[in-house]
Recover the amino acids of this structure.
């Protein structure tokens, strides 16, 4: 069991309904992709946020990561759409 | 002299001319300054404002990583990046990049590199507010921006 802080931005945040939360991840969750899949099963709001999981980007402790990145040691995992700054 | 690096994420407007002057103040080894300002368009009068959301902390850190990469690639005397968040009106600046070097090629290339990477790596998201009072929704990422970033990736 791993406790982490999750943060969401832009339309991912709007669909999930909260900007951040603390969750306890089950042992079966090892990668960023696993976290997204686990979240998608938590209800319709989460399912809507992760309906197209390959376009949702992620960061661990404020650094960009790929879906296959292990979450071991993470304290903050962020999910957000592709960036549109600049 | 060490390169002068300034990175700010702020709600307030920026002064491009003042930042450009500041990067060269008191030093005489700079031969070229490139100043790029990205402004909010009105989209033919349909856009009332853009609202920029950002990831506090990561925004500054990621811009810092992109700036460090630019400093490693080009001989720069200075890099300034200012990115705004919150509500931005048409005509207002959203992002400012200033690069200073001994010669123009490095300053031009580094400014272009910084903008391409900021577009695809800095955690900011734009939401449109229309002049008819409706919220136009989140701006979609452009494939052209990804392609612009890709061209800098060394093979």
């Amino acid at each position: 069991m791993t406790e982490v802080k999750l943060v969401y931005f832009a339309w991912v945040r709007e669909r999930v309904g909260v900007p951040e939360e603390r969750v306890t991840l089950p042992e079966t969750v090892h990668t960023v992709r696993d976290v997204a899949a686990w979240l998608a099963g938590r209800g319709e709001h989460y399912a809507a946020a992760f309906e197209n999981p390959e376009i949702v980007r992620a960061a661990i402790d404020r650094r960009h990561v790929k879906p296959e990145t292990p979450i071991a040691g993470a304290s903050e995992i962020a999910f957000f759409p592709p960036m549109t700054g600049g | 002299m060490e390169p002068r690096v300034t990175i700010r994420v702020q709600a307030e407007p920026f002064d491009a001319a003042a930042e450009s002057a500041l990067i060269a103040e008191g030093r005489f080894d700079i031969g070229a300054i490139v100043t790029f300002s990205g402004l909010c368009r009105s989209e033919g009068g349909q856009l009332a404002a853009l609202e920029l959301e950002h990831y506090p902390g990561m925004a500054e850190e990621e811009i810092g990583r992109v700036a460090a990469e630019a400093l490693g690639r080009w001989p720069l005397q200075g890099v300034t990046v200012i990115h705004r968040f919150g509500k931005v009106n048409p005509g207002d600046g959203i992002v400012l990049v200033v690069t200073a070097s001994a010669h123009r090629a490095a300053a031009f290339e580094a400014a272009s590199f910084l903008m391409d990477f900021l577009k695809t790596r800095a955690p900011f998201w734009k939401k449109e507010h229309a002049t008819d009072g409706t919220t136009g929704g989140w701006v979609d990422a452009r494939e052209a921006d990804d392609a612009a970033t890709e061209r800098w990736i060394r093979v």
